[in-house]
Amino acid sequence: MGGDRLESLGRLAGGVAHDFNNLLGVILNYATLLGHQQLPGQARADVAEIQAAAGRAAELTGQLLAFARRDPTQPERVDLNESVHSVGELFGRTVGAGLDVVVDLSPTQPVVVVDRHQLDQVLLNLATNAADALGGRGRLTISTRTDPTGTPATVVLEVADTGPGMDPEVAARAFEPFFTTKPRGQGTGLGLAAVYGIVQRAGGEVTIDSTPGSGTTVSIRLPLVDQLPDAPAAPRDPAGPAGQGQLILVVEDDSALRAATQRVLEAAGYRVLRAAGGAEALSLISSAGEPVAAVLTDVAMSPMGGGELAGEIRRLAPGVPVVMTTGYSPGGAPAGHLVVPKSAGEGELLRAIRAALGDP
Ligand SMILES: Nc1ncnc2c1ncn2[C@@H]1O[C@H](COP(=O)(O)OP(=O)(O)OP(=O)(O)O)[C@@H](O)[C@H]1O
Ligand SMILES: [Mg+2]
């Protein structure tokens, strides 16, 4: 399938996934709020099912947004070997005993610029495909090797399996979103599509080399940077912190999402002001009668986007931290702000708020 067709599919899928992602944010937030209550046994189990299903749906839209290159990314310098090593460990532990997982890393540290979570998503999608193809028997090899001679210098990441391989017709369509040969319920056909989008966005290329009967190798070539990797973020408290009545201004043009975010923040001990757009937000900041502790704003709003609003806030109320939320980012969120994906869930949102407030 040609790149052009993939591009137009990407635009279509991206729009749908974006709207869907907002709805999932609402569902997840309310389910989480319900989950905090003292519910009778059956209701508790039912809410857990809603959360689990919404979580799976969020994973799917995440793959779709990655394919469409519309999910928020935070590219940083990453040691590819380190990521491969940890995914290899994870797989070595979780797949059946019949599988032989081999990790073969380049002797020099390959530093690439990529969103860490997306890189993990790529590795997991490829390793999962290989494990599926192997059906519990055979060898899965994940390797990296640098090619310092090219301009630019590159690193090649390979995920190879000794499975049954792909017919040429399957290989030709493998990156297409929703193309799957797996039974209904077992594959959505989004794994390789997401890999494709993520690699494109990182300035790399991905190819499949597969012959029926002799396994599959997926190769990804990424530009190398000759700088040290950024320090990985410290492990964070999954429960999320609690507020102490600080006043948070929530700016969001989607009313359902606005209300859901308010509920989450209030449940965590913050007080909340809501605005449907930039102008309303600015007038609330002036008229609130007390300083706003932080602003949480959507990036993509019109007429005033989150980036412009942040600029106005800097003039009007310097020092008030602004946290951005985004369902997708065609051009990326403005630099210098904390960015939380809308579908990230309560914990990540609360951590970002706490970080913005300077709370330990
Ligand atoms: N390592 C592999 N060996 C053989 N076939 C593969 C391999 N990887 C992918 N394929 C083929 O490509 C198709 C598309 O793969 P992709 O990862 O996009 O979707 P999926 O695995 O079917 O579903 P999902 O990843 O969304 O759960 C697969 O259904 C399978 O036919
Ligand atoms: Mg897959």
Please tell me about this protein's structure:
With about 350 residues, this protein is of the alpha/beta class. It folds into 3 domains: about 5-65; about 75-225, Histidine kinase-like ATPase, C-terminal domain (Heat Shock Protein 90, 2-Layer Sandwich), CATH 3.30.565.10; about 245-355, 3-Layer(aba) Sandwich (Rossmann fold). It is about 45% helix and about 20% strand. The chain has 10 helices and 12 strands. It has helices spanning about 5-35, 40-65, 80-95, 115-135, 170-175, 190-200, 255-265, 280-285, 305-315, 345-355; strands at about 75-80, 100-105, 110-115, 140-145, 155-160, 205-210, 215-225, 245-250, 270-275, 295-300, 320-325, 340. A 5-stranded mixed beta sheet has the order 2-4-5-7-6, with helices on one face. Strands 9-8-10-11-12 form a 5-stranded parallel beta sheet, with helices on both faces. The chain is globular, with a radius of gyration of 22 Å. The model has no long low-confidence stretch (mean pLDDT about 90). The structure holds adenosine-5'-triphosphate and magnesium ion.
Key features of this structure:
single chain, alpha/beta, binds magnesium ion, Rossmann fold, Heat Shock Protein 90, 360 residues, 44% helix, binds adenosine-5'-triphosphate
